[in-house]
Amino acid sequence: MQTELSGHLSNEERAILHDVGFDSETSRAGTSVLIDHGLRLIHTTDPNVEILPLAEALRTYDFVQDLMFGLVEPDANHDVALVAEHMRDPLGHFVWVKPGAKVELPVQTFTLMETPQARQFTHDITLIDEGAEVEMISGSAVPGSVHKGRHVSINETYLRRNAHCKSVSIEQWGAAMQTYSYGYSDLGEGAHDASTSVMMSPVALSESHSRTTLGADADVSNQAIIFAAEGTTRVLKTQIELNGAGARCEDIARMVSSGGTIVNDALLTGNASETNGFLGCDGLKLTDQGEIRAVPALVAHAEGSMLSHEASVGMIDNDKLNYLMASGPEEDTARSLIVQGFLALEDKHIPSSLRQSVTEMIAKAKSGGM
Amino acid sequence: MLHVKDLSIAVGGRTILDHIDLELPDGELHVLLGPNGSGKSSLLSAIMGLPPFEVTQGDVLLDGQSLLGMAIRERSALGIGMAFQRPPSIEGVSVRSFADAMGAAASLEREAAALDLAEFLSRDMNVGFSGGEIKRWEVLKLVLQDARLLLFDEPESGVDLEHVGAIGAAIQRACKGGEGRRAGLVITHTGLILNHVEADQAHILREGRIIHSGEPHAVFAHIQSHGYTVPEAA
Asked: Half-sphere exposure (CA, 13 Å, Cβ side) for A112?
């Protein structure tokens, strides 16, 4: 079954979403755009990708009931309960990539909050079925005029046996907003997930909670790119559980504070034999303001579970700075290059506009930097 | 072009270079020879303005203009460039993106091909480079910068003998192959590079002082037979 919501997106809306990865729906296998309190656009160009409003998916497919709150209890915490209370008319999408599908074009999903001081509660469910392969792009944004509001989201993602997913998510909220996201993923046997999260723009408070469970021989590779300008607090709480024999994970967080606070609390648990996992938390501090706190933790319950972590926080290496400046670039340019390199911003999935805004924030941070 | 005038430098109160005098005219390539720890790299760092050296005496002049008090960036803007002996790895910054930042994107492909580095453009700077690759990249960097005073810190160190010739040829081309006024100063403790560049003069630096200057091959021959000493005829 295919549902099309052909709501109009203005050029301004498209431009805002473009900065967080949006491209024309005709060049994507599937597109979902949620604006304020309703899904505005759903479009698919690939028969193996189905996207429905969650409320409709619950009515259409019995099994969606089991996916919803399948990875988190509705009363797990205050925020999740808040979303659950809105479930009489759930707001969010259901994305289903059919079994065995090799989806060539990316699937994109976006959330846009246009109303100042709005309260947005969303619940999205993604099912990548057995043997399917897909690339996902997701983003969250507000127009430049919106700086206050509150967004709470739950994402439940299922990768069935041997499913493969590569994803990029980019958020660009308002500077005085509070956002709380709860992401839960379950990888079946042999499933593979490679994700990049980009959290760069100023926001008053952003809390990202995630829990990933891996079955036998499943493999997850996470990369988070986090920037906190003055006035921004970002809290990441990550849990990864290697539950099946042979499960593997690598979770890398690159954090840069130019006066803001970043707390990265990651817990990796090995519950089965022959599991292998690594947590990497590296921070770069550009000023004396704010804080970077990296707390990687390992718990091994099974014999043969190989877990390791690495954490570092430092400042820009003067040797690198001098080396670059000795070839001509100004100090601001050299600093920006080092920070962008640290954050691995050359990834082709990361919009150039984001790189530009990071460059500007680094330049602003210079006064208290070195 | 370059005039190092009665220069003394120190680190933490300890003298590293002691009353150095050196003149490097336009169009010339000089080689500075000396044992490890003699102060060769310190001299290049003092010219480039790299820390932690403190000038305690004398001056460094480029075309008559004192470099003292100038930041690294100001010196590079004047056309001073340096090929580092052990450059830092810059993770996440590709050769191509750095060339963009230098404003040298237009000449990158051509110059990289000339140094057999065409395949390196998407690689992060100095990350996983072999010894020879690092040296060739350091030369390419100077070419992209369009430096006119080219400083080379031990360009043959860590390079397989069979590849020293390629590095020497690149240095020769960078210093003497292009148009405009250029000059080069190469420091080396092995002297191997002398077989592959047309040096105009060699200097022996020992214990922080230049003890002899002369025809490069004669100086090198003396060092091979008598070490870093002053030739008797001098």
From this structure: 25
Interface membership of A355 toward B (CB under 8 Å): no
Nearest to A109 by CA among A93, A123, A133: A93
pLDDT cut 90: percent of chain A above it: 77
| Interface touch B48/A326, C-beta < 8 Å | yes
Q: Tell me: the pLDDT tens digits for B9-67? A: 998 889 999 999 999 999 999 999 999 888 999 999 999 999 988 899 999 999 999 99
Residue A72 DSSP class: S
Q: Please, what is the angle between helix B131-145 and helix B95-102, to 10°?
A: 20
For helices B131-145 and B105-114, the axis angle rounded to 10 degrees is: 140
Query: What tokens appear for B123 in the block?
Result: 């690689």
Query: What span, in angstroms and rounded, lies between the C-alpha atoms of A30 and A311?
Result: 38
What's this model's pTM, rounded to 2 decimal places? Answer: 0.85
Nearest-CB residue to A330 (from B73, B84, B92): B73
Asked if A319 reaches chain B (Cβ–Cβ under 8 Å), the answer is yes
pLDDT tens by residue, A30-44: 999 999 989 999 999
Question: Which tokens belong to A181?
Answer: 């996201």
Q: How is chain A split among helix, strand and coil, in percent rounded to 5?
A: 20, 45, 35
Structure tokens at B169: 């040829």
How long is chain A? 370
A212, A238, A240 from A251: Cα distances, Å: 11, 9, 9
- The per-residue b/e assignment along B202-217, b for 16 or more CB within 10 angstroms, e otherwise, is bbbbbebbbbbbbebe
Helix ranges (DSSP H) in chain B: 40-48, 72-77, 95-102, 105-114, 131-145, 161-176, 216-226
